[in-house]
Amino acid sequence: MSGSSLIAASSANAARRGSAVSRRILIGLGWLVFTFFLLLPLVVVIGQGLSNGLGGFFAAILEPDALSALKLTVFAVLISVPLNVVFGVAAAWCVSKYSFRGKAILVTLIDLPFSVSPVIAGLIYVLMFGARGVFGPWLQDHDIQIVFALPGIVLATIFVTVPFVARELIPLMQEQGTQEEEAARLLGANGWQMFWHVTVPNIKWGLIYGVVLCTARAMGEFGAVSVVSGHIRGVTNTLPLHVEILYNEYNHVAAFAVASLLLILALFILLLKQWSEARISRLRKNAAEE
Amino acid sequence: MSRRISPVIPGFGLTLGYTLVYLSLIVLIPLAVMFIHASQLSAIQFWNVVTAPRVLAALKLSFGTAFCAAIINGIIGTLLAWVLVRYTFPGRKIIDAMIDLPFALPTAVAGIALTALYTPTGFIGQFAADMGIKIAYTPFGITLALTFVTMPFVVRTVQPVLADIPREVEEAAACLGAKPLQVFRHILVPALLPAWLTGFALAFARGVGEYGSVIFIAGNMPMKTEILPLLIMVKLDQYDYTGATAIGVMMLLVSFVLLLLINLLQRRIETPN
Amino acid sequence: MSIRRYALAALASAVFAGSAVAKDFTLLNVSYDPTRELYQDYNAEFINFWKKSHPGDTVKINQSHGGSGKQGRSVIDGSPADVVTLALAGDIDEIAKLGKTIPENWQTKLPDASTPYTSTIVFLVRKGNPKGIHDWADLIKDGVSVITPNPKTSGGARWNFLAAYGYGLKAGNGDEAKAKEYIGKLFKHVPVLDTGARGSTITFVNNGQGDVLLAWENEAFLALKEDGGADKFDIVVPSLSILAEPPVAVVEKNAEKHGTTEIATEYLKHLYSKEGQEIAAKNFYRPRDKEVAAKYEKQFPKLNLLTIDKDFGGWKSAQPKFFDDGGVFDQIYIPQ
């Protein structure tokens, strides 16, 4: 009896010792991969952006065209993200709380914008709303400009970020199941009460995570927006497009400075995300302890 | 459509309806317009467009490099997820926060930065050039750009699942004499596979369509380093809208089938019987 | 009835009076890649010029730049451009044909076939010309690497291509097969095809790729002017090149809708004035005006220039022959 437990203990020790070595190797490898694939390109961007000192950096990001690009980007984000949040919650609700035929297809359709080339994402709106598009003549008669103007940019941004919130919520809500909601209903809550008091608190942090990713991606979208923007300086240029313009004007430092601004904004919201993630795991742990 | 779980919970009609309407307006109808546009071509014309030698070469290149990038991400993504979940070490939080940055960085900026690094005169490219390896302007460079852009997918799908596997299971297996490889094969792989597949599929699908980051580093040589989205752009710049939409339709169909297959495969794995 | 007529007259007079009253104009000039610097200067000049005769007006000119074909397409698809200033007539022809916002005879509306300035294609090489590149024949020597953009997506690249083809034709005594052979060999020396002229310049200048860049003359001069460029690069003028003619046109339907027909027309006409021509010359475009051209004679080397209309039968025949699917350019890459 004692012999066998001794053997087990020693083999567990050996495993632990072995794992200490492999642990170091794996962490080292992780850092290597991270540095090589992720950090280096980012360092290049920020390094170039700061190569004329902080003065040059701020001059580039406070220039009127850069500011108007920033405004446009923020505007597009403020419209597209809330719309995608409502969609994400609705989609996650019907996918995770019910089972129905065609669910696999629906989930695939939700993922579809991930796999549509940004070039196509822009093109389809041109085919719909462009001067020779399906609704083109009607729009022209009514003097409504959609592509090569703000609505087109917003549409393209919505398209590329459709899946983010739903993707984040579906697994979370599937895991949580339906018991709490059912209990609320049996206790007499109506649909909305159940949603606000039971579901929302449960998915709050996952929702924030989705919003953050959605925002980050919406800020950075280049290809699709490029197709529908028309590249009018100071009017229909988003920040990513402004970076391209500056780069093409031999203004590399300014280009990378504006790109760094995007990176810093992204990093900021990603830190928000991490904070929300930490909250999720703490909540989970608490729930497990209870 | 029959619903089976919990008829007590309301909102099925509302949420499904809203989901379908929204998806239709934003995604499906616009995509359908592309199909309609492409249908101006007869089946034979369509076939001729999508099987032209340049298109086939681009098809091979785009799907090939996206596949390689997804495989690379499958490996290093799992590694990163593992390290982030299982160990605490200095800098862990920083890595964790920065994994998603490729989503936020405009793809064109990523392309410019990577090109600056990997051209034969660039920071890394010069060492590679000394060894006789060319990175930028080759399929290798394209793979690299795609690996960067699609990096978050595998990490972020594997990470939460890995966090949910209780360590005790592995330790118990180890105590019972299982070798690390056996633990990996019999415990980790089955648990992680569905999530891994999702991450892989998303990275792959996104890689096939990626444009902004690739055109700077690709070289864009016909038959050699010309990717499918660039061919669509080329067709558009020649005012050949139907040709462009034909290639778009083909790409979309292939991606959709791939995603669907992987979604089905995943369900197979999740509900074995 | 009479009251109504009176009201109508009053309204009409108000409208006429209104034309003398200060107005706000916003013009959109949709242009191609390398003209950014030119139109930045020219817009300031034009606003001053317009204000002399219309002191109360406020004029804002928005700019859009990109590959010529892409820009043409955005106008076809409804970009609200008042004027287009593109790299080649073929792209404006497409707007006239597909977009129908420009009349088919647009090229007759302004002098010199609506081309207020011209340029040509020259070589930009590394300082001291280490590979000894003096003419087109040197481009296909062993170990020479050539940077040019993709003729499928870049207007400038099409001029490059035709200049090279013209040389091949001349070297082969007019034998098309020889010209095709030359152009085939030339593109074997091209390691990267960027999508636009500016992209190629950046590949050559900033990323240090290639021994020689085939570039717009103005683009090559600009690369010399950029910080330290003159210490790093030399311009080589080949024995033969092509007269690149970037044309301009008012997008009449859009201008009518925006009420900018008059100012848009004036915007393009003023390009032909002494002031406009000076600005073009200062930005390294060859002026049409004889006096201004004489003044800047030293700046622009003399060389034999082919023209698109005489030597290639105009864009209407050159585009399908060389650049459409299956054309000469495709034949280089696709085994027959």
From TrEMBL, chain A:
It is found in: Cell membrane. The chain crosses the membrane at residues 25-50, 70-93, 105-126, 146-166, 207-232, 252-272. It is a multi-pass membrane protein. Keywords: Membrane, Sulfate transport, Transmembrane, Transmembrane helix, Transport. Residues 70-273 form the ABC transmembrane type-1 domain. SUPFAM superfamilies: MetI-like. It holds the Pfam family BPD_transp_1. The keyword Membrane applies. InterPro entries: CysW_permease (IPR011866), MetI-like (IPR000515), MetI-like_sf (IPR035906), Sulph_transpt2 (IPR005667). CDD domains: TM_PBP2. The keyword Transmembrane helix applies. Its main location: membrane. NCBIfam families: 3a0106s02, permease_CysW. The complex is composed of two ATP-binding proteins (CysA), two transmembrane proteins (CysT and CysW) and a solute-binding protein (CysP). Part of the ABC transporter complex CysAWTP (TC 3.A.1.6.1) involved in sulfate/thiosulfate import. Probably responsible for the translocation of the substrate across the membrane. This is Sulfate ABC transporter permease subunit CysW. The lineage of its organism: Bacteria, Pseudomonadati, Pseudomonadota, Gammaproteobacteria, Pseudomonadales. The gene is cysW.
TrEMBL record, chain B:
Keywords: Membrane, Sulfate transport, Transmembrane, Transmembrane helix, Transport. The keyword Protein biosynthesis does not apply. It is found in: Cell membrane. The keyword Transmembrane helix applies. It is a multi-pass membrane protein. PROSITE patterns: ABC_TM1. The chain crosses the membrane at residues 12-38, 58-85, 97-117, 137-155, 187-205, 241-265. Its main location: membrane. Residues 59-262 form the ABC transmembrane type-1 domain. It comes from the Bacteria. Part of the ABC transporter complex (TC 3.A.1.6.1) involved in sulfate/thiosulfate import. NCBIfam families: 3a0106s02 (TIGR00969), permease_CysT (TIGR02139). The complex is composed of two ATP-binding proteins (CysA), two transmembrane proteins (CysT and CysW) and a solute-binding protein (CysP). Belongs to the binding-protein-dependent transport system permease family. CysTW subfamily. This is Sulfate transport system permease protein CysT.
Automatic annotation (TrEMBL), chain C:
It comes from the Bacteria. Keywords: Periplasm, Signal, Transport. It holds the Pfam family SBP_bac_11. Residues 1-22 form the signal peptide. It is found in: Periplasm. The keyword Transport applies. Its main location: periplasm. The keyword Hydrolase does not apply. Belongs to the prokaryotic sulfate-binding protein family. This is Sulfate ABC transporter substrate-binding protein.
